[in-house]
Amino acid sequence: MIALTKYSNMDRFNMDLRSDTVTKPTPGMLEAMMNASVGDDVFDEDPTVKALETKVAHLFNKDAGIFCPSGTMTNQIGVKVNTSPQDQVICDKRSQVYHYEGGGLAFNSLVSVRLLDGDRGRISASDVGANINPDNIHFPVSKLVLLENTINRAGGSYYTLPQVNEIAAVATSHHLKMHLDGARLFNALAVTNESTTEWGQLFNTISICLSKGLGAPVGSVLVGDIETIQSAKRVRKVLGGAMRQAGYLAAAGIYALDHHIESLAKDNQRAQQLGQILTSLSFVRNVYPIDTNIVIFELHDTIVPEDFLEQLESKGIGALSFGGQLIRLVTHREITDEMIDLFEQVTKGLYR
After folding, report:
1. Distance from the CA of 201 to the CA of which of 7, 63, 73, 186 falls in 20 to 30 A?
2. Is the peptide bond before 23 cis (omega within 30 degrees of 0)?
3. CA-CA distance, 38 to 246, in Å (whole number)?
4. What is the pLDDT of residue 338?
């Protein structure tokens, strides 16, 4: 049994469920980083960056990729290269790009947003078709459909290929482009067993985050056709995202793709276990459906969320407030079965 003690200030939690971004590199990943061949990527001379970009592009049957410091940057570049000022982006109202990227859609791309209310974040082909603006100077030009997979604010819900195929057909018929915020796409594919190449065929650009469930310390890759990625390089430069000997970071991404994808199914499974524990607790009003590695639950009104989080933290467990009475937990490769037992032990001892 894990001792119910906190770590030092440097290791604030011994069970950190705040996000899957908190993981640290494994020994094998660190070795790959230290042994990476590097060059100046701004001069297009870093072989490890090139290898990572090619690897992700090939996964999705795309021509090229561009390595960036963050998923926010790859998403913002994806929107920028697919739109012009005064265009409109169609997305669900829970979209990560809309909520958590600092108003970047307006700041970076000068676009407006048509927010839809999908099924747990999943908009349908009919939703898209009904919200494409007519060709009229009074309205912005509908130009881009933006999907997220998995959907953070909806508790890790996901699209399937048939659903996206229908959306892509509507987009194509109306000359709209498609961008995928695939920050946790591989968590969804661990459930559906769908092909990355099939997903690649449906989108003009795809953003893949390496620093969430895949466990790399930093970085995301945007993939698309050659012309689009050439434009993306110009935008990355303007945003300050062009790095020099970035191969040390890219090596971590390559290692993650080679060694960490299979463990995502276990992350999803442990999220289910957390959900079962939470459902049995008297102070939990509701647990959202759990599809992948994100767990969102609602505390009863008598419970102060800040107090609940402080009690967890006093036992070395990190969780995240998600607004109002909602709390979010995210499983990842550093969460073990023993930690799940710890979570059950701690939470069953609260508010008795």
Report:
1. 73
2. no
3. 7
4. 97
